[in-house]
Amino acid sequence: MLYLNHNFRLVTYCIVVLLCLTACKKQLAVTPAPPLSSYFIEANIDGVKWRQTGNNAYFAIQKNIPPAIPPTMAIGGYDPNYMQDPYRSVSIYFSFVPQPGKYYFNNDDYLVPVNGISAGIDRWTGNIVTGKYSNSGYVIIESMDSNNIKGTFEFTAKNKYDTTDTTTVKITDGKFSVVNVGS
Fold it and tell me: Which residues contact 92 (CB under 8 A, 6 or more apart)?
């Protein structure tokens, strides 16, 4: 009798588990990713509207090796046609991975030191590239997760390496909503 009682309990337990597993089918909500064309970076460059979308607007978190060096992050966009004259790219560099908030640019170079934040614009005209970087201005990160980042920015950039070039580039009304292209 003990043997029958044990089998009965085992069969009853299996039926209950089977009923729970089949009755508890809950569909997970699947939210499709927005189309790539909905991602963008835009700004007025010296008063002229500039906008890039899709693959030409991005952010990336660089996990450094060795791991003792903290990760860095870049937000940017570039003209899709390298033959375009002038060809432009706008970038914002962080020597860390920021959280939502307001950050002021504190470095006028593409090499960003610890706790450094820099913004830059590169222009190619023919075979000549001019890189200008900013140590003034700001970026506001409104929201961020591992796949998306959204915010605003503005800065004035100058040529740090050519002292004969005294012109500046003013970037205003900058906005971005971009997807992570790698980490």
Answer: 74, 75, 76, 117, 118, 119, 139, 153
